Amino acid sequence: MADWIEVLIRTISLFFIVLAVTRIMGKRQLTRLTPFHFVSYFVVGILAVLIAVNLIDNLILGFLALATWVTFYLVLDYLALKSKMIHDWINGRETVLIKDGKVMEDNLKQLRLTGEELLRDLRTKNAFNLADVEFAVMETTGELNVLLKSDKKPVTPSDLGKRVAPKSAPQTVILDGNILDEPLSNIGLNRGWLDVEIKKLGLSLDNIFIGQVDSSGDLYVDLFDDAIQIPQPKVKEALYASLQKCQSDLVKYGLETQDSSAKDMYQSNANKLKDLMEILKPYLLR
User: Fold this and answer.
1) Candidate ranges 80-89, 126-135, 153-162; pick with highest mean pLDDT
2) Same domain, yes or no, for 9 and 71?
3) Range of the structural domain that residue 183 is part of
């Protein structure tokens, strides 16, 4: 057998073997690998290349080395799930770099991290002012996580005592001018609803690049022709405005009538509608 044919067969075979091995070793983002995981993936790749190009003459020994490394990796990874001590021994422990707003210089030296590198990593977390940082920790993956001081954190609806509607991931229902039926069915909609919404916008399907339906049921579209201005959906805002008008009318009728029983009825229904509006407000107003 010619050498190039043997290398080709080995490479194709090892491609699928390594693909299966990496699946078994687990899904991890490359930027979030600990040194242990990074070296393990790297060694598996190197062994596969050595076997593929026939630098390891004995095929059995090559696969034995590959299987041994993967087995040790899986065993240690499993033990790390069961034991905190083994987990820390394999992956290391996180290191506190800023505590109570003060930089821990000894820990910086332990990680061989300079002050400039610390400030750079803080900037990647939108912490441009060191005085704003309450706590910062370097994870075993090399990622820096930052906790801002309480008076420097962005204000949330919870801080203001406001209720907001729950959000879910938007569903892409149009892509490259083609309707995607599965995402539509996942949110309980169909092509008929989509056709109506597209007509409301005064558009044609072949001019829509991407169409998404958010958790509120509103359709957002991006067009191939960027010069066309698209009106934003205001269905829920219009419904809330109609409820406001109805509530105002009830109050007005109650003030205008001289009939005491009618006045009480109007006022009672106005109060009920006001309570209902308070419940619906987080869902109808963004």
Assistant:
1) 126-135
2) yes
3) 171-231
